[in-house]
Design a protein that fits this description.
29% helix, Spore Coat Polysaccharide Biosynthesis Protein SpsA, Chain A, alpha/beta, 8 helices, 301 residues, binds 2-acetamido-2-deoxy-beta-D-glucopyranose, 11 strands
Length: 301
């Protein structure tokens, strides 16, 4: 298929050299190129906030739900909001069929950004870094981006309120659910195992959890500027923490700990929903019902 063609090396700066990274690293940056990006977003518009959703190629249900719910909020508190999905190439036996479907879907919505790396969990760092490349090239005039997983509820008005608050930094700003002392896991059976020869330090630098993080749009270019000095690891959010550290930038805690919620033990009450910015959901139907409830007038708390 056309998408599987050999990477063409653009006239770019010479890549720094390092040893073959092996299984605990990912190959980045390696001449990945965009094979779908005809969106007008950031090209013909200057949004205040870009909602960037990494998604698996086959997950059309999540994309359609987001398009009908929080991804459909275009003008919030007078600010322009745009939603984009970022993905790699589909794999497997029906890859070409999937690619054809993606083209049709994009013809209808013009909101897919696709790079030619193979989309997989282990390649999430590639997805994040090509997302930053795209944002650095196209969205430097926009103000903020939130990278948010497709299984999250996003409360757009609450996020816009936070970003419009004069106390919120306009540059060098990154927030979310920040892990300040995240240990490097040394158990080889753990999904996030990382041997000492890859990372010697016992802890990662602070970083916001990958499910939802906000950054000011000066950061993509700055992060890409230092990334070649740091060997990539497959844990994309921890990798961004390593880049931030080299930049001398610290992530910021959100003003309230009710704003970013991971895996709540109970479904959120209407009161909690009225205060949240991003929360993980267990299903598309929960996401939809959260969104509908979050539209309702102020809950009593
Ligand atoms: C990551 O993407 C690269 C480039 O497409 C591919 O060669 C590699 O197999 C992918 N890795 C995984 C684990 O999917």
């Amino acid at each position: 298929s056309a998408s599987a063609s050999a990477p063409e090396s653009a006239a770019s700066a010479p890549e720094p050299q390092w040893e073959d990274p092996g299984p605990y690293h990912v190959a980045y940056p390696r001449n990945y190129k965009f094979i779908m990006d005809d969106t007008p977003v950031c090209k013909n518009t200057t949004p205040f906030l870009v909602l960037m959703v990494p998604v698996a190629p086959g997950d059309v249900a999540a994309r359609d739900t987001i398009r009908k719910t929080w991804g459909n909020e275009k003008l919030v508190l007078g600010q322009l909001i745009e939603t984009l999905f970022i993905l790699g190439r589909p794999g497997g036996a029906d890859a070409e069929q999937q690619q054809e479907k993606l083209k049709q879907e994009n013809l209808q919505h013009h909101d897919l950004i696709q790079s030619n790396f193979l989309d997989s969990y282990r390649n999430l760092t590639i997805k994040t870094m090509v997302m930053l490349e795209w944002l650095a090239v196209h969205c430097a005039e926009a103000s903020y981006v939130i990278k948010i997983d497709s299984d999250m509820l996003l409360h757009v008005p609450n996020l816009v309120k936070l970003l419009l608050d004069p106390k919120t930094a306009k540059q060098n700003y990154m927030t979310g659910c920040v892990w300040w002392n995240s240990p490097v896991l040394r158990n080889p059976f753990n999904k996030f195992y990382m041997p000492t020869n890859v990372i010697a330090e016992p802890q990662y630098p602070p970083y916001p959890l990958g499910m939802a993080y906000v950054m000011s749009l000066d950061l993509p270019a700055k992060i890409l500027g230092v990334a070649p000095k740091i060997k990539p690891i497959f844990i994309e959010d921890a990798y961004l923490g390593m880049c931030l550290k080299l930049l001398g930038i610290s992530p910021t805690n959100p003003p309230e700990n009710t704003m970013f919620i991971v895996d709540p033990t109970h479904p959120l009450s209407s009161c909690s929903l009225s205060k949240v910015i991003a929360v993980t959901t267990t299903s598309i139907s929960q996401m939809t019902s959260y969104w509908e409830r979050s539209r309702l007038p102020e809950a009593k708390c």
